[in-house]
Design goal:
The structure is a single chain. The chain is mainly α. Helix content is about 60%, strand content about 0%. The protein has one domain. Helix 1 packs across helix 7, helix 4 packs across helix 7 and helix 7 packs across helix 8. The longest helix has 26 residues.
Length: about 190
């Protein structure tokens, strides 16, 4: 029988627990940005998913959701405070629910069964959208942002983000993603 932590619909039970490191916050927000690059209505879908999962008290509107995401130090506009454990847990659960929704697209991006031209077109579309969002929202003077935007050297990082999202979907995805974010270097 799956534990309550396996289900993205189970709300966080307490405000106790480890806080995400700076790198964990960066990675969480980048994964949320990848969701927005994959889903043209990703921002609205995240807010809707927040309501569906019962996180309206934490994120009553898109502004509050945006404020929490601005704890990422790579953003143009950043907040120095860190996320409370309940807030980061809620964002992890929203992200996993979105990964479930987007899994067919994630699988198509990672597939080797289709013709290389089709796969390349998908990647080109995704990378263009992600680059547009990153230029709009992230601080281009940060080395990590510059590396992710680089067409050649950033591909491995972008692929890793897609793989992380694919692994965050399904049963146990919340636990896998949480462990990954907590293991991020400080």
């Amino acid at each position: 029988m799956p534990q309550a932590t396996d289900s993205p619909s189970s709300p966080p039970t307490s405000n106790q627990g480890p806080r995400l490191s700076r790198r964990g916050l960066e990675r969480l927000d980048l994964l949320l940005l990848v969701v927005e690059a994959l889903d043209l209505n990703g921002g609205e879908a995240m807010l809707w998913m927040s309501e569906q999962l019962g996180f309206t008290a934490l994120f009553p509107n898109r502004v509050e959701l945006w404020k929490r995401r601005c704890t990422n130090p790579l953003r143009r506009t950043t907040r120095r405070d860190s996320l409370a454990p309940a807030e980061s847990e809620a964002l992890i659960r929203i992200l996993c629910a979105m990964a479930d929704r987007l899994y067919p697209l994630l699988r198509a991006l990672l597939s080797t069964a289709e013709p290389p031209e089709v796969t390349q077109q998908r990647w080109d579309l995704f990378q263009a959208r992600l680059a547009e969002l990153m230029r709009e929202r992230m601080n281009p003077r940060r080395g990590a942002v510059h590396n992710l935007l680089d067409p050649e050297s950033g591909f491995a990082q972008r692929r890793q983000l897609i793989q992380t999202l694919a692994l965050a979907s399904g049963e146990g995805g919340v636990d896998r993603l949480r462990a990954s974010l907590l293991d991020a270097a400080a």
